[in-house]
Amino acid sequence: MDKIKVGIIGAGGYGGCGAIEQLINHPHAEIRALIDKQDTGKPVSELYPHLTGFCDLPLMAPDDPNCPDDFQVVFFSTPDGVGQKIAPSWLDKGIKVVDYSGDFRFNDIDTYKGYANRIERHQDHASPHLLGRSVYGLAELHRKEISSTSLVGNPGCFAVSCILGLSPAVKEKLISYKSIICDAKTGVSGAGKTPNPAFHYPARYESMNAYKISGHQHVYEIERELGVLAGQDIKITFTPHVVPLCRGILTTIYAQLCEGQDIGKVEEAYRSFYKNDMFVRVFGPEKPQASVNVRGSNFCNISLNVDERTGTLIIVSLVDNLVKGQAGSAVQNMNIMFGLEETEGLMHPGIYP
Amino acid sequence: MDKIKVGIIGAGGYGGCGAIEQLINHPHAEIRALIDKQDTGKPVSELYPHLTGFCDLPLMAPDDPNCPDDFQVVFFSTPDGVGQKIAPSWLDKGIKVVDYSGDFRFNDIDTYKGYANRIERHQDHASPHLLGRSVYGLAELHRKEISSTSLVGNPGCFAVSCILGLSPAVKEKLISYKSIICDAKTGVSGAGKTPNPAFHYPARYESMNAYKISGHQHVYEIERELGVLAGQDIKITFTPHVVPLCRGILTTIYAQLCEGQDIGKVEEAYRSFYKNDMFVRVFGPEKPQASVNVRGSNFCNISLNVDERTGTLIIVSLVDNLVKGQAGSAVQNMNIMFGLEETEGLMHPGIYP
Amino acid sequence: MDKIKVGIIGAGGYGGCGAIEQLINHPHAEIRALIDKQDTGKPVSELYPHLTGFCDLPLMAPDDPNCPDDFQVVFFSTPDGVGQKIAPSWLDKGIKVVDYSGDFRFNDIDTYKGYANRIERHQDHASPHLLGRSVYGLAELHRKEISSTSLVGNPGCFAVSCILGLSPAVKEKLISYKSIICDAKTGVSGAGKTPNPAFHYPARYESMNAYKISGHQHVYEIERELGVLAGQDIKITFTPHVVPLCRGILTTIYAQLCEGQDIGKVEEAYRSFYKNDMFVRVFGPEKPQASVNVRGSNFCNISLNVDERTGTLIIVSLVDNLVKGQAGSAVQNMNIMFGLEETEGLMHPGIYP
Amino acid sequence: MDKIKVGIIGAGGYGGCGAIEQLINHPHAEIRALIDKQDTGKPVSELYPHLTGFCDLPLMAPDDPNCPDDFQVVFFSTPDGVGQKIAPSWLDKGIKVVDYSGDFRFNDIDTYKGYANRIERHQDHASPHLLGRSVYGLAELHRKEISSTSLVGNPGCFAVSCILGLSPAVKEKLISYKSIICDAKTGVSGAGKTPNPAFHYPARYESMNAYKISGHQHVYEIERELGVLAGQDIKITFTPHVVPLCRGILTTIYAQLCEGQDIGKVEEAYRSFYKNDMFVRVFGPEKPQASVNVRGSNFCNISLNVDERTGTLIIVSLVDNLVKGQAGSAVQNMNIMFGLEETEGLMHPGIYP
Questions:
Q1: Tens of pLDDT along D301-324?
Q2: Residue A28 burial by CB count (10 A; 0-12/13-18/19+): exposed, middle or buried?
Q3: What contacts C226, CB < 8 A, 6 or more positions away?
Q4: Which of A131, B90, C347, D2 is least surrounded by Cβ atoms within 10 Å, i.e. has the fewest?
Q5: Are B301 and B294 in contact (CB under 8 A)?
Q6: What is the reported pTM?
Q7: Whole-angstrom distance, CA of residue D133 vs CA of residue D125
Q8: Which listed residue (D17, D55, D157, D162) is catalytic?
Q9: What domains can be seen in chain A, in order of their start residue?
Q10: Distance from C286 to chain B by nearest Cα, in Å?
Q11: Closest by alpha carbon to D97, among D154, D45, D23, D139?
Q12: What does the pLDDT look like over B214-229, one tens digit per residue?
């Protein structure tokens, strides 16, 4: 079989770098071109020198007439608002699209607006007609729809952690839907590669903080997915925090356990729910999981605990924000869209320490 | 006025080092002797070379016949179980005691047992007769009792963060008492100076994890203090996490806001509650506070937020675990016990960056 | 005695913050005004929240007509090129000046040019007539001249580390002058507070690199000072490195030991040279010194070693780049200029861990 | 072709973990058993949870009768003194051995003693008869001998960095042999996984220091290899430093450039010397290399610079101490010993950021 030809738009950012890392040893895909508005003409290995000899393709301007366009799939590793403008021209040529931003995570204009109101410089959606055919790219919930779509909205990094952490509990009605609190801690890489006073090394190495308290945009896709599973509207409280490490999201999820439930039933429900999901690992309370356990890999580790004093289910859900939370999920979605083994190119454990 | 003569037991640990740092420039106190079972004979500045020239006293064995004992106050910077055995002999000589551990945080043997069951190697309390006269050393709640006692149980570091974060809300009945969740993130220094696989640099620099989920011993003193303020029993859900930084506890506290409350009333209640407390700073939702804002200082920063979508009060409470969470509170208590200005020796902002 | 009134220009940067930290508890100085071109109108404690309650003065524009000017000394915590333009107007009013940049580190225009050619956007010196009266602000070498000048060029952070590490060896002719190599490692705070791709947390937390190899501008003031001590021209090889920590410069200095020298004589020479210098601590080879030993304090720790296999003197010289390498030296110089105890306000050990 | 069966002794340490990471996706090798004295019975994925699902083999005691022994090669990831005692029994069965320690890096007992005198608890070599047939496992210098030996002494991590950095300059007589100084900075993982006060997170996160000044044991293998290339004895000055990061060695090498040499000739010599070495990348002075460029990969990056003011060649040599400095070199050596492509299993770039 010929290798799938992949184009990456926004290739110069961490999301592009992550896709390159996942694709260079992928047996059935190859990177055909790297597109970006910045650093055009430079080999990507000048920006990311660890790629030297592995991927030395130059970054090409989006309007460069020499830029190849014979892709079978394009990754948009771009901020909100870019994919919705440009994806249609690629889709029209029969090229599949995986978009990292929130542009195609919602299937109607109203829920998109709830999301868009939370982000900076929001605007009217440029391609509302595409929303109905886009699929939310969380393979564990939407594998089948992903396999037959040409347009995937890759999930937000916090959302992956929260939705995978909560889905079995919500689907199986183990918890009170009114009581859900997600306390998320993220490494700094989630903010991307653009320097910023809050992520300047001296300002960050010994500091942690909450931010966007009760106002983070990822809450909408979490509530939408949970609502579908529950068959009713769900509202959650979600607080993100930044802590001084690079990779990893640890979300501690609290919810009231329903009458008659206990840790044994909860574990059983989770193991059953994820029994066919290679990238989800379920653990009981015996050993707390650390973010480093998923660093650099496409896994989501979920550990389950019950505080019997208060009847609270406490779920710790871990992903690497740049892999399962971004580029890894994108490649996983690509694999599904092209009928490959879902795990192709992704079966590596990361490095330790 | 002559300077207060201070003895520090367990002086070789981080808690002893912290007390020395707070005391070397204290205008009305002086360190008379440093006592420890390890590293005896070595100047403390060999263990902590930054103290060279500031405090070069040797560590002396507890049973060293040459060890001075003409103290006016002794700090027990020792693990659970030490102070309860040795403090009586000092108290009998008329010497005041501040104990860092849980030994004297509880006023009766039953609540102590609830706590002790959670810690390793627990045992029967060695001096139960002293529990009735010990005072819980959180100055903001017990200033008056501290001023007239000779025995203070210094609060746990997480407890300082949670109790200061919650006291006004509980006292003024702003929140539902059944819904309180404390999600705490601590730096590594809280675990002390003894090396441990979990705090080995390569294992920790890029990892975060929850631990003792629903089982941390500090929950008892938090519930006791909140219960007194509420006039009824309160149970909370408390989950500690370790993140890769050195100093700081950030606790994110969630509780259902009562009917009729709003952010304005909450802010007003907090400012009023703490209006005479120099070391508590109250902030509204406008600017999230970072742990570095209290690093190296005796302050507790509290920021208040309401998630209007879910009616949740979200409080972020910050302390430096080694200062307000330990040695700073100890010196603050000493100041109060001796009728000094409460802030003496403690009015410094820490360093940045 | 009335307190010395201090104005700080460029107060919003790390150098300004450092000066504020050293001055807020200084018994004989007070900050009168904070001047900056950025963030004007904001209290400095909004930029540096740990200062809340300690220094809440607003940043004022340099041309703000309401800005006080009744200073006795002005600190220029500004980049190269600023002080040389503006200092004259303050000096003319009889106000003393301490400039952090290279503007007044050289006493004639030719050596200044050697320096200026190495920095970005260099230019002709705006006040060449002042060079002759400026004094290089390294108190250990120039205490007397500093006491009688009104214009001090505060030394570069690397230069402090190298010059203090080498002065006795050069002065006492312990080493071959042709063989000196300075391998310097600095924390990230030396680069200031402006975000930069190289100091973005994810890019820096797990990376170290050399930079400006054979081209750093501080080499000129090091060579000038050493040349004066040697009575002949000296050229050194100097390589700076950035490593992922915040505060600290560790310079490892290599030079061929002269015939007849040994570690004992070297130690004796160093102890003798620095016998009246409170802020220099000399150590033999028995215990390597770590950068954290001087973190947050105005000390320079020097450890001396001889590699007998190759006859090489190996000196490890440590400073906190933001204190002895910048704001601490500035306050030390101010104390000397005003006839105060040199250590006033500076006798604190920093914090650990 | 059947896969090579690999046994790993000392599998529970970082060196064992590194070998597992390199081997789990190796197309022509498979791990047959993991042997260790500690944690026996536990799956290695309990110690290193990122390996879950990739390698869940248990650690088996060396004397466990159920332990497989049908290996074709055994890696000794053990401290000095272990391999020399146990390797003979494996070699006698016709099994090849790669030993990570210094036990087989020297070919005669006298040079071994020079090394052994520098390490703790040194002893007489237990298998001196094997020294004559062991090969120093730095493939770039000894590829041919490695291909025909059954016993490889894997090089020390610092030695890899220094020898690769210096070999062309020494071989081609570009530098004065008397003037070589190696200033090495290492991440903390080089010290292994055993907790230690110096590597406790709070003690290390913000500290750097030199250690074993003029006394590190790796100097002997460096001098031996350089001596062979030079055809004469060479003595170097070598100073190791620990800095607060996990992976990476950056060695800055200084030497006097010989008359008639310049940067162009140096670059040419280096490129020529390494033209057939896939894992060595040579760079000129245009862009300083950072340790993160080789993190997690088997590459050595060398950048070349000349300080024309002093005639000094300044070489910056970078490796990941756990890969090219340890397990990666071991796998590279295994590949060569079995006639495989040298790069098999090792062609991955690491991860960034």
A1: 999 999 999 999 999 999 999 999
A2: middle
A3: C163, C166, C167, C170, C177, C180, C234, C236
A4: D2
A5: yes
A6: 0.98
A7: 15
A8: D157
A9: 4-155+324-337 (3.40.50.720), 158-323 (3.30.360.10)
A10: 12
A11: D154
A12: 889 999 999 999 999 9
